[in-house]
Amino acid sequence: MKDLTVGKEGKLIFQFALPMVLGNVFQQLYNVADSVIIGNFVGNEALAAVGASFPIIFLLIAMVIGVTSGFTIVVSQYFGSKDIEKVRRTIDTTYIILFFAAIFITVFGIIFSGAIFRLTDLPEEIIPQAKLYLNIYFTGTIFFIGFNATSAILRGMGDSRTPLYFLMISTITNILLDLLFVVVFKWGIAGAALATVIAQGGAFITAMVYLNKRHPIVNVSLRKYVYDREIMKKSVRIGLPSGLQQTFVALGMLALYGIVNQFGTVTIAAYGVAVRIDSFASLLAMNFAAALSAFVGQNLGANKPERIKAGLKATWLMTSATSVFFSIVVVFFGRGLMRLFTPDQAVIDIGNDYLVIVGLFYIVFSTLFVVNAVMRGAGDTIVPMFITLVALWLIRVPASYMLAGKIGVSGIWWAVPIGWGVGMTLSWFYYRSGKWKTKGVVKYDMKT
Question: Taking a C-beta distance cutoff of 8 angstroms, is the pair 174, 33 a contact?
């Protein structure tokens, strides 16, 4: 556990974010391994099926993960104020709520997966493989949510290292099982999904066993769980807007896939691969933003709001530097990266077009996430939610429809940075207003 209320702000945030970044790199390798192996050993239709499954997975899990962020912020603020009993009760309440949510998501996802694919106009020849992959994936929902909830709780207490070790082992396991099931056993797309479920289950179970024996605060016991209604209310008040935001983001992704799907299997496969590559650039900004949120939460809980501005500046400089680096990589080496996933030149060309257009604007995306992280860490999640909805549903989705009709599929790609730019501008103006400072769970002296 790490106390983020004492020490040099930039150094603390970097040291805290680094294990999270590494952990998410390994987590991204779950899907990348599936895509690389399927693209090279199964074919374009299977590759498109994996890509088409992603927004549905994100849609059904986004609400739960968003609400979990509310528990994370509550944990960080109680931990910052040294109220350990409240931290324990928050952890118990988190697990109780997410257990039932995971069951619901599993059942809902399996029942309606085919209907959702048809709703997004996915070509009929892709649907059987996409549905098979998705249904197997959903059998492991409880493992995925459980592990991510555990990681989020630990981050709220300043411990970002422990989840990393389990993710590294899990990712290596997933890749080895992918090779075994797909390349050796010839199980195709079902083998890739099964490998992911087994690896995620192993990570969750191993993490829980370890934490029960070694961690001083996290001790999971079915006989000792305590449900705290007041903590639940506080967590939902903070997390529900984020959950709704993520859900509408996921619905926006589905809407965009509905546009992409009209351009055929090759374009769907290219988009799925390009988004995988794109995710490595975005995860850095997202993880530094998560670290900043924990930093803000602890410092508000400890009545040290003066440290927040310095933390924001340091985080923005770090994410801007990495964004410029990734922009250079995808613009100049996009074709080579696409070639790792597929030998099909048409898929490579379309995916590279996406990377060049979107990659030029990574710094806009990172600025948007870092500024919003300050408000979320303070417990103000409603305004960032509305800003995201405006940028996505009033700007990006309509722009995608209009530009796709005028200049083809590249118009969908241009709508991405347009939406980011609007969101970044609105978030910056709200941050400058200072109204987010009054939303904390633990009240502090505003005169400080």
Answer: yes
| Cα dihedral 185/188/194/198 (nearest 10) | 50
Q: From the CB of residue 10, how many other CB atoms can be counted at a distance below 10 Å? A: 15
Q: Judge contact between 67 and 240, C-beta under 8 A.
A: yes
Length, in residues, of the chain: 448
Rg of the chain in Å (alpha carbons): 21
How many other CB atoms are found less than 10 A from the CB of residue 234?
A: 22
Q: How far apart are the first and last CA of the chain?
A: 26
Dist. CA 431–CA 435, nearest whole Å = 8
Asked whether residue 10 carries a pLDDT value surpassing 70, the answer given is yes
The Cα–Cα gap between 103 and 105 comes to 6
- Strand segments, DSSP code E, in 143-293 are none
| pTM of full prediction above 0.85 | no
Most confident option among 161-165, 343-347, 372-376:
343-347
**pLDDT score of 366 more than 80:** yes
